[in-house]
Design a protein that fits this description.
The complex is a heterodimer of chains A (263) and B (265). Chain A has 263 residues and is an alpha/beta fold. Chain A is built from 11 helices and 8 strands. With 265 residues, chain B is an alpha/beta fold. The longest helix of chain B has 15 residues. Chain B is globular, with a radius of gyration of 17 Å. Classes of the chains: A alpha/beta (263), B alpha/beta (265).
Chain lengths: 263, 265
């Protein structure tokens, strides 16, 4: 179980395979297992680096509020630890905020950047939604019901219509081996709600691929369009009838997009 | 406090102003206070009829489940009791389903219809949200918190950016002297969940105006677009930066659209 001591916390990470470094950065409250199915298909051509952001998975969850910049610096410190100078990045949701910030803080370390469900600033609807989820957790509402308030916000209508898929997802989420601590939830939420890349998107020199669901409720398609229009070098790949979780619902397609863009 | 016993159910209604009849039909869980700011502005030109659907406000809650056709028939029975031969109608959300049913099954009763936040069938995402809220009520979660789960689905980011707005909305709903009964909630929810007349929409000839918020997350714009394509006589107006509650977020614009559409030849 490898941990790196970075910025006074223990950061959990894994590396798999050899080749061009490719770092996967998870979204709010999720951890490296989000990407487990992406690892094997990539290990022959990439050095796949997975990590748990501070506040989730097995990484430390200090109780002070976090910023996206802190999480970006954690990731860069991990790369120092691994003696990786330059890498490509795949981020989803909050992970896209971290990736944008890495490209801003350390442009020389970013080869290509792939953003799944990107935004420059989280919409107020999503801020309120996350806040309410926090209250439901605090009120110790049965997890089964909390998941039923979260799943339709994240997954597509086709996914939600499929009873079996919903059951399987609830099962998977209920059996999360590394559930987020309350400190982690609060810390990451502070980071997420205060993130705003509007002022620096235009300065980012890296080449970006944006993957966005046309029916994303959590970070609507207009968010991705805004990021796309403000970046210097950006390709936008829209997924029709897709929500916030393209990487979970269309894994093969997303994997192919990553492979061809990062190679 | 006028209540009327139709042949199936007791309904609460109010009539304001005079002119050609204009009936305002509520959505899921709503009661007539939904229209409180609409009434004074429309009553100068129209005979405005507002009422609580079966299972909400001061109307009777029969045992669940209900159907949209049943709610449509309630509306027609109310018109008959009040000797209103035909009317313009405005529906919000579930009320737009009631209008579709009326325009199909009682076409002679509706002259023109304005559908606010319309859809052909409730998206599975919205249905799961509604059911989860019902479960939250069921396990005794603080009602304010259960209601709060609905807000990001139905109000836009712009609207929700007003400080303390979420607390205010929830407080207002909870302060109602006529809270919805559990039977009314689940009866209406099942009506909402089971309705889909996509295969018959092309038979509707009534002129319809569809008003949709571009940022509606509950019944997204794709639903309004689908409805517009399937109907033969419908105009769609998509309003930017507005959510499902566009009649609250853009009240004057919506009132203006209703009036202009009803006046048009």
């Amino acid at each position: 179980m490898p941990f790196a001591k970075v910025n006074e916390i223990d950061l959990y990470y894994e590396t798999h395979g050899k080749g061009k470094p490719l770092v996967f950065i998870s979204g709010f409250s999720s951890h490296h297992l989000t990407w487990r199915a992406f690892v094997q298909p990539l290990v022959d051509s990439f050095q796949v680096i997975l990590l748990d952001n501070r506040g989730s998975g097995q990484s430390s969850a200090p109780s002070e509020p976090y910023t996206v910049e802190t999480m970006a610096k954690d990731t860069l410190a991990l790369l120092d630890h691994l003696k990786v100078n330059k890498a490509s990045f795949v981020g989803s949701s909050m992970g896209t905020a971290i990736t944008q910030t890495i490209a801003h803080l350390a442009p020389e370390r970013v080869d290509k950047a792939i953003l799944i469900a990107p935004f420059a600033k989280l919409p107020m609807t999503s801020i309120l939604k996350t806040e309410t989820t926090g209250k439901l957790l605090l009120a110790k509402v049965p997890m089964d019901i909390i998941l039923e308030t979260v799943i339709p916000w994240l997954f597509s209508r086709d996914f939600v219509t499929n009873t079996q898929k919903v059951l399987d997802k609830k099962e998977e989420m209920s059996n999360n081996p590394f559930p987020q601590s309350l400190e982690g939830f609060k810390g990451q939420f502070e980071a997420l709600r205060n993130f705003d890349s509007t002022s620096f998107l235009k300065d980012l020199a890296a080449e970006f691929l944006l993957i966005a669901g046309e029916e994303d409720l959590s970070t609507p398609f207009s968010c991705a369009k805004f990021v796309h229009e403000n970046l210097q070098k950006s390709h936008l790949h829209p997924f029709p009838r897709m929500g916030h979780m393209a990487h979970a619902e269309k894994r093969k397609e997303v994997l192919d997009l990553i492979t061809s863009f990062a190679s | 406090m006028p209540k009327i016993q139709t042949k199936n159910i007791e309904l609460y209604y109010e009539i304001h102003g005079s002119g050609f009849p204009l009936i305002l039909v509520c959505g899921f869980t709503n009661q007539i206070d939904l229209w409180k700011n609409f009434i004074p502005k429309l009553a100068s030109k129209y005979q405005v009829i507002v009422f609580d659907n079966r299972g909400a406000g001061r109307s009777e809650s029969s045992p669940p489940p209900y159907t949209i056709d049943q709610l449509a028939d309630d509306t027609i029975d109310l018109m008959n009791e009040l000797n209103i031969e035909k009317a313009h109608m405005v529906g919000f959300s579930m009320g737009t389903l009631i209008l579709q049913s009326i325009a199909h099954r009682h076409a002679e009763k509706i002259v023109k219809g304005v559908l606010i936040a319309p859809f052909a069938s409730l998206p599975s995402t919205a249905l799961m949200q509604a059911r989860s809220m019902s479960k939250l009520f069921g396990v005794g979660v603080d009602p304010a918190l259960a209601l709060e789960t609905m807000l990001p689905w139905v109000y836009s980011s712009e609207f929700l950016s007003t400080p303390q707005i979420a607390e205010k909305i929830v407080k207002l709903i909870l302060s109602s002297p006529y809270p919805q009964t559990p039977e009314g909630f689940s009866g209406q929810l099942e009506a909402l969940a089971s309705f889909d007349m996509s295969d018959r929409l092309d038979q509707i000839e009534t002129p319809l105006l569809l008003l949709a918020g571009e940022d509606d997350l509950y019944t997204p714009l794709y639903e309004a677009e689908k409805l517009q394509k399937l109907l033969q006589n419908a105009t769609l107006k998509a309003i930017p930066k507005v959510g499902h509650m566009l009649h609250i977020e853009r009240q004057d614009l919506v009132i203006g659209e209703i009036d202009a559409f009803c006046q048009s030849k």
